[in-house]
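R.M. (postdoc): so does anyone remember the format we settled on? I'll just put the structure tokens first.
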């Protein structure tokens, strides 16, 4: 699922250890397995999900699976 402005507007983000939950306002929750402890998760202006790890790493997700390290 590629992230779009609609997904950004229709979800809230919750962090649970090494998972990020995308909670849709009118539907299910999408669970992202990050594999490392998550510190923060926030949407960017380009509708990507910016995740900061507790070990200091930073990842930019374009969908629920694909990311690049920053």
């Amino acid at each position: 699922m590629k992230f779009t402005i609609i997904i950004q507007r229709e979800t809230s983000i919750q962090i649970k250890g090494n998972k990020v939950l995308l909670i849709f306002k009118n539907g299910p929750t999408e669970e992202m397995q990050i594999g490392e402890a998550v510190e923060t998760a926030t949407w960017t202006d380009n509708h990507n999900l910016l995740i900061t790890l507790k070990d200091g790493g930073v990842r930019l997700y374009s969908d629920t699976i694909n990311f690049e390290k920053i």
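R.M.: ...and that's the designed sequence above, right after the tokens. Also worth knowing: The longest strand covers residues 11-16. Helices lie at 5-10.
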